[in-house]
Fold:
Amino acid sequence: MNPVAVGITPNWETSGSNVAGNSNWIPTDEIFKFFKKVMPELKNMGVIYQPANEVSSMEIKTAQELLDKENTLGINLIVVKIDKANDLGSATNTLIEKKVEAIWIPHDRLVDKNLDIIKAIASPNKIPILLSTITTIAAAEKNRYGRDSHKLPWFRKIIGPHS
Structure:
């Protein structure tokens, strides 16, 4: 989550209050540069998300602002919104019909939990799935760019090793 974007803190340096913590937010430009490195010819990237999810909504908004402002990467973002898991199949088909070259999955719990629906449609169509979260990597078996909280020393002490 981006604590600045959702209003928890005014900036990344200090909260100005008693708020402290860490964030799994990765700057959108870093994510897109990674995707472009993995797929240099990428022009049309689809994304599926649930607008009710504040984190993925902010990620999409930030991505769209980046691409609208200075799209030096040459990526066109094609967005499909869903309300429930049953919408994922038609959303994926919509992206395939729009000739996307990859599907990006932002931080969206509903989409993450039902990634197998997207994979079942995208894989036979040879559409790679690009992920923002490490937790979905095993399900998608594709590229991801994210932070693994399980590798942080304090996390390992509290939770234990990550399999």
